[in-house]
Design goal:
By secondary structure, this protein is an alpha/beta fold. It folds into three domains: 213 residues, no CATH class; 126 residues, no CATH class; 174 residues, no CATH class. Helix content is 23%, strand content 26%. It has 13 helices and 36 strands. Strands 3, 4, 5, 6, 8, 9, 11, 12, 13, 14 and 15 form an eleven-stranded antiparallel β-sheet that branches. A hairpin with a 2-residue loop joins strand 16 and strand 17. The radius of gyration is 34 Å and the shape is elongated. The relative contact order is 0.06.
């Protein structure tokens, strides 16, 4: 019998996606319409699921819960994955039907809405069409005259388990409901919680009162899901896990279900790989096997990209992606970026639970409410990274690149963790710890962590504390005002601290460092460098193997304390003090290098106040002036 509806037949089928603002017709899977001008993974993939909700507190409206505060998950489409969603507010209820008699409501097939299977094998367009099939006598109502009346129940105060149990719902009879009208009117309203009220009708009580029943399209997140619980054997429990999204279970679950053992073997190989590039390649293969992509590469329609990447994204998002138009270059660029960002999150999860675990265990984590991301504080990790580069540069070249990729993967859509790592490194350099390391190990650490190019850089700071790494190329770094940390790296660099308490490190090759006003810390590092400082208590550091440095110290302050510090491996009895016209020259006997204090004898303003060695020996100004 044809369903009789008021004003519209068969109750609206078109909605607007909150994801892109575009309009599309809902199919049985409620797949998203997407626009290429919106970066997908910076938002999660939202859609709607239709259900029938009853106004149980009789206030004239059906109330729903807010998505942001919801802890509810439910498997609307019956694919075994519970999507994050919302339900009726606890004072109202959801109409349900236990189809298999197990005392549970486990999927949208046992609700009334777009997931309800009709007798013809299709899916209902809304809850009232689904309910119509239970109208046995054609009176356009569900009453005690219909056999299904006794099977209908109402759920209220839904918890977050994702499975509705018998004690969580009531029968229609217990609620005093004796009839539900199937004929409906269009409501077309979005409530304050963002849920869409599209069709509405009435239910009747034993006291001859009528109240509202509404077909509501509830928000659901197709990406944030939970899979059905499975028992994980101990050999898999000992391997790193990664969170499931969309229609993929967790990595542990996928390994358990993979009877071939291929996925587990790939994870084992990832843990034991020796190079960064090998781990990156295995990370991608793990994603492909996890999402059950084909083994061989193929292009995706006209787009110049691996079709397996698209397939993996569709699994993680929980919906199909649009086909590319034309040659698909824009499509490939966008979705390759999305895949790479997601791959970084998987890389972080795998590495932080295995070969990088010893590092990430030392990170302190906090929730950054403004950025809505977990922020890592890496102060305890940074010394370990520099130690590794100094003691084992070959291994460090691989591990440091892994660590940088993993930090990006904490949240690849917000730069806060990369910025916090840079700050921790800047603080470490600024605190004067570089005397423990060679310039090459420092350059290796920074180059690997920040994956820099070798082109020349020009950096001009401002009035705040600046952190700048020139690294490759011939760089010009100017901190201006503020307490700045500048690192030249490889190349012939010029570093100017400006006003403030600055830390300058030239890195490799011949550099010019000028601290200018303020209490500055200058390290020429490898190469023949020129170090210049002005007003303030300045420290010049020279380490073994640094080259032939020139220090030009000029300070009019009467209370100043300017210091030359010799690092490990330079013994006082192996340093000879000589004079060359107006310059004082410190000759490192075993290393055939010199430190020249330019114009030292010209005036008191060019003197330094002391020389300190790493063993604690101190030469005062008087000692330096002795003939």
């Amino acid at each position: 019998m044809k369903l009789q509806l008021k004003k519209i037949i068969p109750c609206l089928l078109v909605v607007t996606s909150i994801f892109t603002g575009c309009t599309r017709e809902i199919d049985k899977k409620h797949s998203l319409c997407m626009s290429l001008d919106i970066p997908m993974t910076q938002q999660e993939s939202f859609d709607y699921a239709s259900v029938l909700l009853l106004d149980l507190n009789n206030n004239g409206i059906v109330d729903t819960t807010a998505f942001d505060n919801s802890s509810a998950y439910f498997d609307f489409d019956g694919d075994g994955f519970k999507q994050k969603t919302v339900f009726a507010a606890k004072q109202d209820g959801v109409l349900v039907r236990d189809l298999n008699g197990d005392g549970l409501i486990t999927s949208g097939k046992e609700l009334f809405g777009g997931a309800t299977t009709l007798r013809n094998g299709g899916f209902a367009d809304n809850g009232f069409i689904a309910l119509n099939e239970l109208d046995s006598n054609g009176d356009h109502r569900i009453t005690v005259e219909d056999p299904a009346y006794k099977e209908l129940k109402v759920l209220s105060d839904y918890d977050d388990s994702g499975i509705v149990k018998l004690n969580e719902f009531k029968t229609l009879e217990a609620l005093g409901i004796n009839a539900i009208d199937i004929t409906c009117e269009v409501e077309n309203r979005t409530d304050d919680q963002g849920n869409q009220h599209r069709q509405t009708s009435k239910y009747h009580t034993e006291t001859n009162k009528t109240f509202k029943i509404t077909n509501v399209w509830l928000q659901q997140n197709l990406t944030v899901t939970r899979d059905q619980h499975v028992w994980i054997p101990k050999d898999i429990q000992g391997l790193p896990n990664a969170k499931g999204f969309g229609t993929s279970g967790s990595l542990h679950t996928a390994m358990f279900k993979d009877k071939s053992g291929q996925l587990k073997a790939l994870v084992d190989a990832f843990i034991n790989a020796e190079t960064h590039l090998e781990r990156v390649r295995l990370n991608e293969q793990i994603i492909f096997a996890w999402t059950q992509q084909p083994e061989k590469y193929s292009t995706y329609y006209q787009a110049p990209m691996d079709a397996r990447r698209i397939g993996a994204l569709e699994v993680f998002y929980g919906h199909k992606l649009p086909r590319p138009n034309g040659i698909g270059r824009q499509f490939a660029q966008l979705y390759n970026k999305q895949f790479d960002e997601f791959a970084d999150t998987v890389f972080y999860q795998l590495s932080s639970q295995s070969f990088l675990k010893a590092y990430f265990e030392k990170a302190l984590w906090s929730r950054d409410q403004l950025a809505e991301v977990y922020a890592g504080h890496y102060q305890k990790i940074v010394p370990l990274l520099f130690d590794l580069a100094y003691n084992d540069p070959v291994k460090a070249q691989e591990i440091l690149r892994d660590f940088a990729k993993a930090v990006r993967g904490v949240d690849p859509y917000k730069p806060i963790n990369v910025e916090l790592l840079r700050k921790a490194i800047g603080d470490f350099i600024g605190d004067g710890h570089m005397s423990r390391y060679s310039a090459s190990s420092v350059n290796l650490t920074l180059s690997a962590l920040f994956d820099v190019s070798h082109s020349a850089d020009v950096f001009v700071g401002n009035k705040v504390d600046n952190l700048a790494f020139g690294l490759g190329g011939n760089d010009l770094l100017y901190g201006k005002a503020g307490n700045d940390t500048l690192f030249g790296g490889a190349g012939y660099d010029e570093l100017y601290g400006g006003v403030g308490k600055d830390s300058l490190n030239g890195g490799m090759h011949d550099d010019i460092l000028s601290g200018e006003a303020g209490d500055d810390f200058l390290i020429g590092a490898q190469g023949d460098d020129i170090l210049i400082a002005g007003l303030g208590d300045d420290t010049y550091q020279y380490s073994r193997g640094d080259g032939n440095d020139i220090i030009n110290n000029f300070d009019l302050g009467s209370e100043r304390k300017d210091t030359l510090f010799f690092g490990d491996g330079i013994e006082p009895n192996k340093v000879r003090v000589t004079r060359d016209q107006e310059d004082l020259v410190l000759v490192l006997i075993d290393h055939n290098h010199t430190v020249r204090l330019q114009y030292f004898y010209r005036s008191p303003f060019n003197e330094i106040n002391q020389v300190i060695f790493s063993d604690g020996t101190r030469w005062s100004l008087v000692d330096l002036l002795k003939p």
